[in-house]
Amino acid sequence: MSPNGLDAKTFFEHEGGGITYNDFILLPGHINFSLDEINLETSLTRNIKIKRPVVSSPMDTVTESGMAISMALLGGIGIIHYNNTIEEQVKEVRLVKRFENGFITEPVVLSPDHTIKDIDVIKKSYGFSGIPVTEDGTLHSKLIGIVTKRDIDFEEDRTKKLRDVMTTQLVTAPAGISLAEGNKILKESKKGKLPLVDKQGRLVSLMSRTDLLKNEDFPFASKNKDKQLLVGAALSTHEKDRERLDELARAGVDVVVIDSSQGDSTFQIDMIRHIKKKFPHIDVIGGNVVTAKQCKSLIDTGVDGLRIGMGSGSICITQDTLAVGRAQGSAVYHTAKFSREYANIPVTADGGIAHIGHVVKALSLGASAVMMGGLLAGTTEAPGEYFYEGGMRVKKYRGMASQEAMERGGGKRYLSSEDRIKVAQGVSGTVVDKGSVIHLVQYLMQSLLHSFQELGYKSLQELHKGLSEGTLRFEMRSQSAQTEGSVHNLYSFKEPHLGFLRMSH
After folding, report:
1. Which residue is catalytic, options 94, 244, 307, 316?
2. What does pTM read for this prediction?
């Protein structure tokens, strides 16, 4: 072993055997910059850039609209799972797209003949209650009023028509104004909502005071050209998911992830070709793959990004059950190297991310982003209810190939949903309450900035350049070195877990 460590080519191509994140350490570089000079922007796909290299996994105990909204606000992106009906998945995508974020281009609208009870339903489903009222209850018809929380909070008769409670003295603005101009009107009027109307007084869109505050709180938010949050959705390779694709496209999904445990198949190739032919504006992330040969198959078919990992997730037992897969460190290094050199296609490392150190290592091996499941499970925004187990507040977390998930449809990613005998490749379990994902990811990203500084790189692009040029240095860790690098030789200690973030905010 070199006294200054090894370059990645020597380390990964001559060591022999699979290498995973805990098997190596990165050697420090030279620090000549501050944390605020570091840029974490990355390419999720050929056409989509995000400010933070984090993606939430399309698992039914990890990502629905609540998680996807938070991930997008934080600069990453969430991928909505498909272990549900088409209507349910589309609803989750629409919730992200309609999230109040600057200009609301598709606001929920009601008519004067709707009732307060209809507002209650919207509040429960979407989380807001400030609703514009138009003549016929549709967008692009004449605006005649607005119903806000203060109009209905103390009204006992929930069957009362909106025409009897709505505010008709309206502050509006002409469609086409800038965000800054709308912000000024909202501040001066002290209103919570600002309807934007055309010359005929017809409702075109809406602005919200809370959105403007969110824009200040989340400067790295992932948005499209229309100021909507970015969101992805998972698809299987099954023929019937082509209908799902059609509906997701109508809902405005930005990227689809073909969710398969082994992505190099004729089924996935056919699906990729179908997507790129019918919806060329929607980016496709293919996978999962772990070898250069698999990458080539999907890149040649037209994918815009790749998802890397097979059997490395905390709830995945594919490697034990089927004896097929690859150590995640080796998988990320070899696939990222090939994809970058062959077609400059970004790869997302999926699985095995247990803490911030693993995020750093995945990126250092060439990944442009990391996909997280278990690390985000148990947060407030993850689907499911909290319950107590052994005195600890927990949420359920399960693999999409666990027996439990497959009974709901998760087996689609394993081409086995119709099998009479299902072979589980995952397990079900519980994870401790971690509090809000907002605080968790902010903590992870601050830690990532410190890691980049310790390594001596100002950006992900510089890190990957160091990887390819050999200035980024690696060293193997023995079992005793791994022990030394963790807490040791104490009589007792309290290990910090991510749940402390909930209590510290």
Report:
1. 316
2. 0.73
